[in-house]
Amino acid sequence: MDRRDFFKTMLATPLLTPLILASTKSQNGLELYLIAEEAQKFIPTLLEEAQKYSISESRKFCFLNPHPQEKPLIKILLDRGWTLIKRPVEANLTLSFSHLQGKALPSFTLVKDGRIWDIRTRKLLSLWQEMNRIYSHSSYLTIASFKSRLTDFSVGKYVTVYNHGLQAETLSLGKDLTKSFQARGGRIVVHIKDGKAWISESPCRHKICLYSPPVSLAGERIICAPNNFLLTIEGRRSIDTVIG
Amino acid sequence: MSCGGREKWQTSTLLVFDTLCEIKVFCSSSVLRSAQEEVEGIFSEIESLFSPEAEDYASPMVLDLYTKALQVYHDSDRCFDITVGPLSRLWGFLSKSYHIPSSGQIESTLKMIGMEKLKVKDGTLTLPPGMKLDWGAIAKGFAIDLASQVLIEMGISSGFLNAGGDLYCWGKNPDNQDWNIGIKHPRERGYFGILTISRLGAATTGDYQRYFIRDGIRYHHVFDPGSGYPARGRQSVTVCGPETVLCDALSTALFVSKTPEKIMEKYPEYGAIIVDSDGDISVIGKAYPFRPVE
Questions:
Q1: Nearest C-alpha of chain A: how many angstroms from B116?
Q2: In angstroms, rounded to a whole number, what is the distance separating the alpha carbons of residues A11 and A143?
């Protein structure tokens, strides 16, 4: 299967389309896609190649969801000097698994910094030929994602205040100040100091907004629901909103 | 609807269900005003039909949501149950005067729990005496779906509605990409991971949303309908899928269930991100683009 056919198969699979889109827009992402029944036979060699493009030397890995070859994969990666850990946030490499909706010819590719890289050069070409010789089709997709250098948290530059349901003001986090707003139930006082914003006075009953810690990272918010009052930190957006 | 004026990204907030609903849409200012009115109208109607005091059990909307709730009730082996209202009241979550009930009180309250006790007769939902419905784990998702659908029908090509734990997003974000939705960290500031989605809903149930602590133990508002006590073993569960109403109900079901994979087998279009009581993250069901952050 050539690279074009590989991606045609991938993009025709509804499950995978969002994965591809996600990886192609990750600015510092590095992801290896492998279609093969026995991922453990190919992953170690492919990871060696992929790690040449990674910025981290760390060799901690974990699984994001159950993998049909989890045991042999763990064994072979441990043999190659990787350490299995439980927390994805601490892992340099996360492995996830999906079933393809149909069967496809075995193949692999690398997606780095939003670009698709054909890594079938020299020894990997022979690996690719070998997997196509052994298996005719596979419905197993293994995705190996390397952690990117940049943290997803970014320090905000501004705080936007929403009052009465509308944007009231955008204030710089670079300048210390105290400002009052006339909200639905009375006066709300917003403080900005040392790049952090918080609410220090509110007429609401439960004072949850007063107990909220100061916010400074892009996407962080303080909400005073009874007063329909919201502070949200603006910055280099890695997220559009937060749930939970 | 034709758009009067220039289209641009606009954000507004609404106070609904005692929470702040964030609306971000790409449209003109005049369309935004209509959108706000529509969303407010839908949420007011849902709030009046599904508040703890509401008793209009003949409304088609109530019967529609009851049917969806009953489906998840059966599919989750009763881990999701809208009849847990008496438990919320017993533990003081309705009055906010929290306390730990005696085991005897819990036992007798459990007799009033169970959706099989509800009946639909002559187009009306009927409850045995003493039973009380709690739509809190499904109504917000229902409202988000209805409101989003109206905004899409108004011609708004991109946007999201976020009512705290429940969200629906469609179209593209201001960077012309799918939406990046941070999932709140259950114990720390900020978020622990990012879902990258569009034309999908998402909902989170967490033990940090409403709780009290006694003798170092956290007692939260997500009850196990089998034991009558707050469910243990999870800090948060986020579900992503086509309908926010099901995301909402499933996030509660998975929070309570000891076998969440079994539930997800019945919902192949849905995926879940589970943070267990040790803070470990696992992903089950359909694999939507999710990446944990440092």
A1: 30
A2: 15
